[in-house]
Design a protein that fits this description.
Blueprint: H1 20-29, H2 33-43, H3 52-79, H4 87-96, H5 100-115
Helix pairs in contact: 2-3, 3-4, 4-5
Length: 116
């Protein structure tokens, strides 16, 4: 959701809220569990099994990570009065947030993604 300045912000759901719309909002915030499971399986041996709880935990973590990085990149764009967030903004946010191990691999991927 964005405020009047265009900055993206994320609200945590209250567990006290029994409204079905809250459940839908929570599901929209998360990556699809099937996609998470497929990505996890790529790194595991072919006969490995993944518990549903493990998939759900990773689903929460990667969704939160994406929100965290995107929020930082969005704030940079807002400060620079730009409306379009690009790959360089994401790379900048990853480095700024201290995820230095991912900085170089991401910078290598950005040009490849732009070519597609």
């Amino acid at each position: 959701m964005a405020d009047e300045t265009g900055a993206i912000f994320y609200n945590s759901l209250s567990w006290e809220d029994d409204d079905n719309s809250s459940i839908i909002k929570e599901q929209e915030r998360l990556l699809p569990i099937a996609n998470v499971g497929r990505i996890m399986k790529q790194i595991l041996p072919p006969n490995a099994k993944i518990a549903k709880e493990a998939k759900e935990t990773i689903q929460e973590c990667v969704s939160e990570f994406i929100s965290f990085v995107t929020g930082e990149a969005s704030e940079k764009c807002r400060r620079e009065r730009r409306k379009t967030l690009n790959g360089d903004d994401i790379c900048w946010a990853v480095g700024t947030l201290g995820f230095d191990d991912y900085d170089i691999p991401l910078k290598r991927l950005v040009p490849i993604i732009y070519l597609k």
